[in-house]
Write a sequence for this structure.
C-alpha cells in the first residue's frame, strides 16, 4: 500500500468528518478571491479544519456576506472579511498559507491561456502584496493559466527580493483527484486506496498522468491508457462544457485545494509524511517549472520524489517529450509579462 496520497486523503476525510477538534488550531490562512465559485466552498472546507485559527477572506466584491455566513459555523477558526485593495495588506499580515483562486474562469471554446490577459495582472498584483506582507507564507496559486501564473508569481517575488522556490506552489491537486477517481471507476478499485501521480503542468497535453505508477499496482490495456490519459487531460473542459457558460470546476476544485491546504498545514505542524503533486520550480527536467510529487515539510518543499520519473513507459516518455515545448512557452510568457510590467 502506498503511504503517499492515501494517507493524506484519509487524514483529510477524518479531519473534515469529525468536526470536534483533536489538534490545536494555530495556523492563519488567507483566501484571495474568497467570494468566487471556488473561493466560497474552499473557505467553507478550510473553516472545517481543526488546524486553522484564523481565516482571512479577501475579495474585491461580496466578501462580507460570505464571511458573516461562515463565521456562524462552530469550528475553531475566526473568520474575517477584507474588501478592496486598501484592506489587502491587513488580510495578509501574519498569514501562514495564502491561497489564490482570484480571476476569471473559462467559458466553452476557450483555452486556459485565453484567460492570461486578465488573470496575469490579477495574480501579479496579489503576489506583490503577498511579498510585502507575508513573504514567508506558503503560496498556493489556483488562478489559470497555472503554467504561466506560477512563473509570474516567482518573478514578482524575485523582484521584491523574497522569492523562496520551496514555498511557491501551483495547485494541480485536481488533476490527481480526477486521475484517482477515473482510474478507480475504470478498474473497479476502492477509491480511497488509489493514487496516480500527475506530472508536467496544468493545461491539455501538459497534464501527464503516470498510470504506470498507479497504486495499488494495476495493469491497463493500451486502449485504457489512451482513454484515461485523454479524459484526465480534458477533464477541465468536460466541466466547462457541462456548465455551458456558467464557469469551470468549482466544487471539485475547492475539494482539491482544501486537501492541498490541509497537507501544507500538516507539514507546517511537523507531520513528516506529507506528499502531494504540485507545479513548482524544478530541476527534474530541463523545464524550469514542472509538476511532480514532492515531500512537504515545515520549510516547504523538502524533497522531490525522483523515483516517479524513472522507468517511464514508452507512452509516458513520449507524452513527457511532447509536453515540454508547450510548457516552456507558457512559462516564458509568464516571465516576460512579469518583467515587462516591472
Ligand atoms: P469566479 O469568477 O467564480 O471567482 C473569482 C473571484 O475572484 C470573484 O469573486 C472575483 O470577485 C475575484 N477577483 C477578481 N479579481 C480579483 C482581485 N484582483 N482580487 C481579489 N479577488 C478578485 O471564478 P472561479 O470559478 O472561482 O475560478 C477562479 C480561477 O481559478 C479561474 O482562473 C479558473 O480558471 C481557476 N481554476 C483553476 C483550477 C486549477 O486546477 N488550478 C481549477 C478550477 C479553476
Ligand atoms: C480545471 O482543470 O478544471 C481548471 O483548470 C479550470 C478549467 O478552465 O478547466
Amino acid at each position: 500500500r502506498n503511504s503517499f496520497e492515501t494517507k493524506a486523503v484519509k487524514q483529510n476525510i477524518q479531519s473534515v468528518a469529525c468536526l470536534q477538534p483533536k489538534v490545536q488550531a494555530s495556523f492563519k490562512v488567507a483566501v484571495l478571491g474568497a467570494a468566487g465559485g471556488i473561493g466560497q466552498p474552499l473557505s467553507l472546507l478550510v473553516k472545517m479544519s481543526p488546524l486553522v485559527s484564523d481565516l482571512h477572506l479577501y475579495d474585491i466584491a461580496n466578501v462580507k456576506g460570505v464571511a458573516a455566513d461562515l463565521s456562524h459555523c462552530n469550528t475553531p477558526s475566526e473568520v474575517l472579511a477584507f474588501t478592496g485593495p486598501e484592506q489587502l495588506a491587513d488580510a495578509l499580515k501574519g498569514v501562514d498559507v495564502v491561497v489564490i483562486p482570484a480571476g476569471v474562469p473559462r467559458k466553452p471554446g476557450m483555452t486556459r491561456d485565453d484567460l492570461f490577459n486578465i488573470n496575469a495582472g490579477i495574480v501579479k498584483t496579489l503576489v506583490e502584496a503577498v511579498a510585502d506582507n507575508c513573504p514567508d507564507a506558503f503560496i498556493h496559486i489556483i488562478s489559470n493559466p497555472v503554467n504561466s501564473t506560477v512563473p509570474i508569481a516567482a518573478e514578482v517575488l524575485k523582484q521584491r527580493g523574497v522569492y523562496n522556490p520551496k514555498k511557491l506552489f501551483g495547485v494541480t491537486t485536481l488533476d490527481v483527484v480526477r486521475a484517482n477517481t477515473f482510474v478507480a471507476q475504470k478498474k473497479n478499485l476502492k477509491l480511497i486506496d488509489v493514487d496516480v501521480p500527475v506530472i508536467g503542468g496544468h493545461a491539455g497535453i501538459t497534464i501527464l498522468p503516470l498510470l504506470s505508477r498507479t497504486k495499488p499496482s494495476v495493469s491497463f490495456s493500451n486502449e485504457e491508457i489512451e482513454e484515461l490519459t485523454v479524459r484526465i487531460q480534458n477533464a477541465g473542459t468536460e466541466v466547462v462544457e457541462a456548465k455551458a457558460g456558467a464557469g469551470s470546476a468549482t466544487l471539485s476544485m475547492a475539494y482539491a485545494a482544501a486537501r492541498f491546504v490541509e497537507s501544507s498545514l500538516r507539514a507546517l505542524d511537523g507531520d513528516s509524511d506529507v506528499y502531494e503533486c504540485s507545479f513548482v520550480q524544478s530541476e527534474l527536467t530541463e523545464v524550469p517549472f514542472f509538476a511532480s510529487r514532492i515531500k512537504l515539510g515545515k520549510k516547504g518543499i523538502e524533497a522531490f520524489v525522483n523515483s516517479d520519473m524513472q522507468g517511464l513507459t514508452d507512452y509516458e516518455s513520449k507524452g513527457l517529450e511532447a509536453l515540454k515545448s508547450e510548457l516552456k512557452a507558457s512559462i516564458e510568457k509568464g516571465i516576460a509579462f512579469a518583467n515587462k510590467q516591472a
